[in-house]
Write a structure and sequence with these properties.
It contains 16 helices and 10 strands. It is an alpha/beta fold.
């Protein structure tokens, strides 16, 4: 039966590249999942699948194409090698897919993963701490309901970090330890405040996060899900990728106009709210997309916008948030004057 021998490249440093992986390369036609690894130069004789990442529209399609090619080559050649970053037993979806193939035998040879280095740097025994490992790309779903110690892998871009940040809504969010490029000369391990997670961290494909005590309260609300969808569109959809703050102006104005029209139709024709909900959703999409562009530029994000309007509404409503209960509510005229005075004071302070 045709066979695929799977090995790993280790976590990044040459001294942890398994000798078994070098033997695979010497003994069999060998393929690399990607050359995006610090030790890929040791395997220049192997063909990689990097072209699939550039030409496919989703990772699922990339993984399916890799597995299809590997199975086909194994049937043609008899036995081939397949090498992946880190360990083939940790966060390697292509290995899971290969094991489901009935046409070939799959031998998996374990190797050191980034997890081993992470436990050493953190001085943590994962069993003693009962650590849960989750995928940063799907943090909101995988971490829902979890508490305690969590290691978050595959935090390779700011959208992932922003999604993680938005998923927790507590008064005192935890500190986060960032681990990057473990074992390499430019290794970095540092702490960051939760609110600064997507600002202070410059993520790459060798970035993971340690949360020593994940709070019990996690939001899985619709707004966080929308933020996640918009982030994926910016990464994968050609139209969304090319948009800028300025290019969206006409669409933003059009959506605002359609919201007004939906309100007028609802009031004049006694129509239901379905139309208004749809148009408000279109307008909200534009707002979240503007925030996504701000995230990429490192200037602002959705949380900044929410905090800004929250602070403004509290400041401009002292009769609600800072009123002596024994003081009577101001009149509408007094409220209008108060609003103007507070707004003018804000402009003078800007």
């Amino acid at each position: 039966m045709s066979q695929i021998v799977v090995g790993g490249l280790g976590p990044g440093t040459e001294r942890l590249v398994p000798e078994t992986s070098l033997i695979i390369l010497r003994n069999h036609p060998t393929f690399l999942r990607t050359r995006r690894h610090p030790c890929a130069h040791l395997f220049n004789a192997a063909e990689s699948f990097d072209d699939l990442y550039d030409s496919s529209d989703s990772l699922e399609n990339v993984y399916a194409a890799i597995v299809e090619t590997l199975v086909s080559e194994a049937i043609r050649l008899g036995t081939i090698g397949y090498l992946v970053p880190g360990s083939p037993l940790v966060a390697e979806h292509t290995v899971e897919l290969l094991r489901m193939q009935a046409k070939v035998a799959v031998e998996v040879i374990p190797s050191v993963s980034f997890l081993d280095l992470a436990w050493e740097r953190l001085q943590v025994d994962p069993m003693a701490k009962r650590v849960t490992i989750v995928n940063g790309q799907n943090f909101e779903k995988e971490a829902a309901g979890l508490t305690g110690s969590v290691l978050v892998a595959q935090c390779d871009n700011r959208f992932v970090l922003s999604d993680i940040k938005l998923s927790i809504n507590v008064d005192k969010p935890p500190m986060v330890t960032v681990l990057q490029r473990l074992g390499l000369d430019d290794e970095s391990v540092f702490e960051v405040n939760w609110e600064e997670l997507d600002r202070e961290v410059n993520p790459d494909h060798l970035t993971c996060l340690w949360i020593s005590d994940l709070p019990a309260s996690m939001t899985t609300d619709a707004l966080a899900q929308l933020h996640n969808v918009v982030g994926r569109l910016r990464r994968e959809c050609p139209w969304d990728q090319e948009q800028t703050h300025h290019s969206l102006i006409s669409g933003l104005l059009e959506e605002a106009r359609e919201v007004v029209e939906a309100i007028e139709v609802m009031e004049t024709q006694a129509a239901g709210s379905v139309g208004l909900v749809e148009e408000l959703g279109d307008l909200l999409f534009h707002i979240v997309l503007q925030c996504a562009i701000g995230e990429e530029e490192g200037t602002f994000d959705l949380a900044d916008v929410a905090r800004e309007i929250h602070g403004k509404m509290v400041r401009r409503h002292p009769h609600i948030f800072d009123r002596d209960p024994d003081t009577p509510m101001p009149s509408k005229k007094q409220l209008a004057e108060q609003w103007k005075a507070i707004k003018a004071a804000e402009k003078n302070q800007a």
